[in-house]
From TrEMBL:
<dbReference type="Pfam" id="PF08327">
    <property type="entry name" value="AHSA1"/>
</dbReference>
<feature type="domain" description="Activator of Hsp90 ATPase homologue 1/2-like C-terminal">
    <location>
        <begin position="12"/>
        <end position="134"/>
    </location>
</feature>
<dbReference type="InterPro" id="IPR023393">
    <property type="entry name" value="START-like_dom_sf"/>
</dbReference>
<protein>
    <submittedName>
        <fullName>Activator of Hsp90 ATPase homolog 1-like protein</fullName>
    </submittedName>
</protein>
<dbReference type="InterPro" id="IPR013538">
    <property type="entry name" value="ASHA1/2-like_C"/>
</dbReference>
<comment type="similarity">
    <text>Belongs to the AHA1 family.</text>
</comment>
Length: 150
């Protein structure tokens, strides 16, 4: 499968965009009520936990931190949480958040790659990333997120 790659230009400093990606109060606003849990040390676990099929502590995504450079790079492995996997082990892919200042704004690049050809989370990820990225841009620029309904 080809990589999922998105580039957004955000009218906010890298620090504000970074805050949306790693601060629990802001992450929950862009990730459907889920919070990020991690020490962010390379080699340590990372997970997104929030309301879902297994209650308020549903693990939606988990993995291992591969790279962490504040306001620049967050790269980690990605596996679907247990409630999303019917049989066997979840497939692993890699998510890379890359930030760079461009004039008075921030270029945010998201790359989701390393997909297994049979990974069923490819299509749902492609769909969800657009909302997550749009919410990240809106939150960093305005302090609020979009109303997608439902």
């Amino acid at each position: 499968m080809k990589e999922l790659r998105y580039e957004f230009y955000i009218g906010a400093a890298p620090a504000a965009v970074w805050d949306c990606l790693v601060s629990p109060g802001k992450v929950s606003q862009i990730y459907y009520g889920s919070n990020i849990r991690s020490s962010f040390a390379e080699g340590e676990p990372l997970e997104y936990v929030g309301p879902g099929a297994d209650g308020d502590e549903t693990v939606h995504v988990y993995g291992t931190v591969l790279e962490y450079k504040p306001q620049e790079t967050l790269r980690f492995t990605h596996k679907a949480g247990p409630s999303y996997v019917k049989d066997g082990e979840p497939y692993e892919s890699v998510i890379s958040w890359l930030l760079s200042p461009i004039g008075g704004c921030t270029k945010l690049t998201l790359i989701h790659d390393g997909w297994h050809p049979d990974d069923p989370s490819y299509a749902p990820s492609d769909s969800a990333w657009w909302q997550i990225l749009s919410n990240t841009k809106t939150l960093a620029e305005t302090g609020r997120t979009l109303d997608f309904g439902g």
